[in-house]
Amino acid sequence: MVQDRMGPKSTAEMPPRGARRRSRRGLFLPYILLAVIVVAWSAGWFWIRSRAASEIDGWMAREAAAGRTWTCAERSLTGFPFRIELRCSAVTLERSDGRFRLGSSTAVAQVYQPRLVLFESAGPLHVEQGTLIGDASWQSLQGSFHGSADGFTRASVVVDEPKIAVASAESEPIVIAGQHLELHARPDPGRYASEGAVDVNLRLNQMQVPQLDALTGTRDPADLALDATLTKATVLGTGPVPKEMERWRQAGGTLDITALSLAKGPQHVQAKGTVALDAAHRPAGRLDLRAAGIDALVGSIVGQRFGSEQGALVGQLVGGLLGLSRRPQPDAEADATPLKNLPPLRLVDGKVVFSGFPIPNVSVPALY
């Protein structure tokens, strides 16, 4: 009896050999699936990379056929496994009206979110446009573009410590520097489909412009803010600037300024209105103004006709009549002078008309 209890197990109690093999294969199944996924993902990424390269080449060929030659120096497409990263040591555009060159730049899109493109550039930017030569540099520049099936949903550029210089043979160079610049654009929810309208938001902090210092009589840095809507923006392309602006003008494009603010030391000006282009390609329209502390500015403008001393007196008189002079406040909390409404500013036939009178020695040139 003891021998029977200690004897070998019956065949009914032994697991089949096939079952043992199947259980062992189950141990390796996750690794097999992982290997398949890795191989498939790698093949997919290289296919996407090849497709992206073909799309870039095709777009550049179409642009060249239209007279716009793009060059991406030392182009590379990397970013495996989750990104497509386009790098250029320099980006150049040559066309009939000028030449543009941007320094080392990178554009990145996630494989699972291809319509969101992130961009950064070390710069600098050099532009040759007719008789104008422009140069721009910065500490950092980053941007983003959110594409959609019918265009885009948002585009943004953020720049730290921008510096722009524009030179021309006919005038002295204009230099604009700042601490921080932001530019955002998006389709206007109610007007994009019908008017091709795009909302634009611009902020430039601690702006310094020598010409503006001379005009206002103060070297305080300025803060600029703009909220506006550009109608007929969808007609604009990458062609020569005069051609694109004329197309925009003929389409009836306007710049609807919701809020424009310029604060420089004790001086503060706000404006809103609409500006377009007239038949002579000059800005034309009307701006409603509010301001404070600009008696020195009025004096500077009037002084161009009557001389600096009389201009300063007239400026103080006009500023007092309009309530624009900055008066001492009894305490620090009341330091901000309230803005006063001004007569509208009109751009008519190349003239700047304020309160019904053209401003002397000030004209509005044609933009192209």
Automatic annotation (TrEMBL):
Query: This protein's superkingdom?
Result: Bacteria
Q: InterPro entries given for it?
A: DUF2125
* Ranges annotated as spanning the membrane: 27-48
A Pfam family that this protein carries is DUF2125
Q: Which UniProt keywords apply?
A: Membrane, Transmembrane, Transmembrane helix
The entry's protein name is: DUF2125 domain-containing protein
Origin organism of this chain? Methylobacterium phyllostachyos
Instruction: Give the classification, highest ranks.
Output: Bacteria, Pseudomonadati, Pseudomonadota, Alphaproteobacteria, Hyphomicrobiales
